[in-house]
Amino acid sequence: MVSIMRGIGLYSYMVGASIRAQLQYRYAFVMNILGWAMTYAGTAVTMWVLLYSFGALDGWIFWELIFLFALAVLSWGVCMIFFFHFRSLDQYIVNGTFDRFLVRPIHPFFHFMAMKFDVGAFGQFLFSIAAVGLAYSNLHLHWTWQWLVFLGAVIGGALIQGGLLVAISSVAFWTTRSERLYWVIMWPLKSLMNYPLSIYPRLVQLLVVFILPFAFVNYLPALILLGKTGRVFAPFWGALSPLVGAIFFALCFRFWMLGLDRYKSAGS
Amino acid sequence: MSLIEVNHLYKEFQVAKRQAGLWGALRSLLRREYLTKTAVRDVSFAVNQGEMVGYVGPNGAGKSTTIKMLTGILVPTSGEIRVNNLIPYKERQKNARQIGVVFGQRTQLWWDLPTIESFELLKQVFQIPDHRYKQNMATFADILGLDEFLNTPVRQLSLGQRMRADIAASLLHDPLILFLDEPTIGLDVLAKERMRQFITEINRERGVTVILTTHDMSDIEKLCRRMILIDNGQVMYDGELVLIKDLFGKERVLIVDLEGETDSFSVAGAQLVKEEGNRKWLRFNRELTTASQLINRISEKYEIKDLTIKDTEIEEMIRHIYEKGLAVYEMNSCRIENNKF
Lengths: 268, 341
Prior knowledge:
- The complex is a heterodimer of chains A (268) and B (341).
- Chain A has helices spanning 2-23, 26-54, 62-83, 89-95, 108-115, 122-138, 146-170, 172-175, 179-192, 202-211, 219-225, 241-266.
- With 268 residues, chain A is mainly alpha-helical.
- Chain A has one domain (2-266).
- In chain A, helix 2 (26-54) packs antiparallel against helix 3, helix 7 packs antiparallel against helix 9 (179-192) and helix 7 (146-170) runs antiparallel to helix 11.
- The longest helix of chain A is centred in the first third of the chain and has 29 residues, at 26-54.
- Chain A is globular.
- In chain A, 40% of the residues are buried.
- Chain B is of the alpha/beta class.
- Chain B has a 6-stranded mixed β-sheet, with helices on both faces. A 4-stranded antiparallel β-sheet of chain B has the order 11-12-10-13.
- Classes of the chains: A mainly alpha (268), B alpha/beta (341).
- Chain A binds chain B through residues 6, 9-10, 13-14, 17, 20-22, 24-25, 95-97, 99-100, 102-107, 111, 264-267, and chain B through 13-14, 65, 68, 71-75, 89, 92-94, 96-97, 99, 101, 103, 106, 108, 110-113, 117, 120-121, 124-127, 153.
């Protein structure tokens, strides 16, 4: 208990330092937030154009699609705040600066995670909260218990995406480079999830439910939250997001620790 | 009982074999062949509390690998390490509390933040009690002159300032042992001198055991009484610096750039060890011949454009030991015997 409290205290202290460090570059700070918000708004406009000519996409109308997209962006924002630093792990390994995490009396995973609290994610929040709010009112939703599912989806989604970031970063312990892998795995998966899963082939559906569980980030929870019936999976699956997230993250963390062991025996 | 004990330490790495040319590069993409490289080979030594030891060797000799094993960053392939009765790679976090580490080429400070913030963060990370932190900060600010740049972001510090900040940061939690990996690399003469004075003081006043790696012999000469020389992963010499000084300290190398025809160049009292066109390397014993005598003799016959005098370099020492065979292992074992008492 004491160590948990100390952990939280230390984490918030380091997060404070990290935010101050990012505020040193005011211009980059503001542009980062605005830039991300604009990028996502751009994607939303593309969806609008798309639906303007088709009316609906596999039974999903415009505001439903916006909701689906915004839910993914929201949990991605939460994920970025905590885990985005892992994307630069390979640079630390290439420069040899990773060693510093191993000569301090705290857990290296925790230390590395606390080194950067990515405030750029406020751009994601700016867009996604506005978009979820607009979708909520335009679709005339009245949630009660669904708020819990929503919260679960955000937490689970952050853990699933964070887990994958962590797993990808740990490849650098073997190869010293992992940035490319992010573009090969993470980016396509994230883009895939912007649209309803039902439009994709069966193989893709199985992949994102059972192997890299990105369906639990937005599609499955959205089925419950929007009161839709999935043709493929029963809607209650969406309530399992936090559980799936916790399991997936734990596996990815094990993989990272395995990588760290390999780093300690082989160096870089 | 010694503070640090290393017995028959080995570290092997698997290195991918590079093949020449484009075809080779493509082939190695598909099928890689690995070579086993032994970075540290049967290294044994013991260090007592309060000692200051120079761990010396040319680039790639295995210095950093040894330090990384002592600090718990790397796991040895075989052999034993004990640092104050802890096995570093097994109890890494516990070991981290009793050691301070400075890697000369890479800062451990928070790059974008004012220097003082790194100290505050380390206070939190190491759970340093308030009064110790204040005392230490006051002492270091005084000796190292930290005050002038405490509020400057680390990325804007000069190399000398950054090294001073880094060394202060490594000592904040009152470690028993300080590992310095190339602490004077890239520093100018004044900054080097200041750094050396500080290291001496820390060792003398606080009794901190210091192990420092360097390839600058003058660091060792000014700081350490004991030197461990390694080459190719193996200990070549472990003992008093005095012995090495007797062997090599008298020798200097004079490098001269001459004008005109200089074939069949020779000068009495010095041995021509190397030549590149009109640049000559002359080794001499400064107890038999002084540099000025030598320069006089040369300038009688030739026009000297430029000259420098150098100490014997580590590479030179190692070659000498290989050729003449210093009784390394005898000294080595004698050292360990001594430590038992």
